[in-house]
Amino acid sequence: MLTRRSEAVELIRRSVRVIVDRYGSRYWFEKDERREYPVEFVEDLASNGVFGVNIPEEYGGAGYGLFEAAAVLEEIAASPGGMAASNSVHAALFNNHILVKYGRSEVKERYLPDIAKGRLKFQVYAVTEPHAGFNTVRISTFARREGDYYVITGTKTFISRVKYSNLGILAARTTPLEKAPRKTFGITLFLVDLDKAKGKYIRVEEVPNNLRRFVDTNTLYIEELPVPEDHVLGEVDKGFYILMEESNVERALMASQCVASGRWVIRKAVEYAKQRVVFPPDPIAKYQGIQFPLADAWMRLEAGDLLKQRALEAIERGEDRRVAGYYANIAKYIACEACYQAARMAMWTMGGYGYSAEMDVERHWRAAELSAGVGQISPHMILNYVATQVLGMPRSYGE
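Given the sequence above, the corresponding structure tokens read:
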């Protein structure tokens, strides 16, 4: 079983690498400079079935799981485009996992074949709100039931790839917080047809963002958006528990990207250091001041990789959600911090050239800074999780 799976992962890596190699440094530099979304790159991946890697074969996908999805992301992140390139695929593969697991049969039959073939882009995950942040139970976007539909009104912010997606997942309250028997009850997830909604029920306003130059970030103003009842994912009012369970998948996949990006920048820095001579005759790679920080970051990336593998294993085996959460949170924390350290040390190793956009390393640093900071979950919230849920210490913030 392990041998067959290893062969599948290696085949996927080679296939994705062929596509990735078609888009070199110049392509990503120009996308950065023009602040353009990499449409050609995404279309190439989609037309070659990459977005269907974790969709079951009965719906036209490749039928693989999370380890294979992680392999896709790692191959993209380990390229000049870095995590800014792989994040589009990350969102789609993560959304696939939710739809396959929680979608109604008729809805899966309607959408998954086109997602698998790249005819529909499924890259939007709309949960965050201006006044809720990481405290998801306080979202105020509301969905009221009207016959066979839910009608949704509210605001979402920091939502990426809206302009380039056909479908998305949206979280809304179906029971007001003040009427819920417990605060985690009353949130529902919906599959939304963005093609029908944008411009009519959803107004998209871009949020200026310098860190992610070719990935759009938006605020969504949702007004009386009708969503069919069969587009509910999972059970009504129990979406929060899906969000918590699927956050483990999201964090494990993010850790995968961080490990791959971190390894790439370290290799780039080592290659440069071996050639760079400041005080003849020795290259700077001979100096321990260069060696030690890169070696330290590399070891931390290795630890993050092992934690990521354990997290994916726990999720795929269906182990207790607390076990999966334990490994996924720690993997995200360790891998993203190590990636950020690797990118920073690589830039310092390369001196002024490290800050040059044409050298690609600073592009990885930008994505690493976001991932290690507020991306998906902040490091402080992970530390809170470990302190309270693992060590049994009292919470430092309100219930």
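The longest helix spans residues 239-275. Try to locate this feature in the token string yourself.
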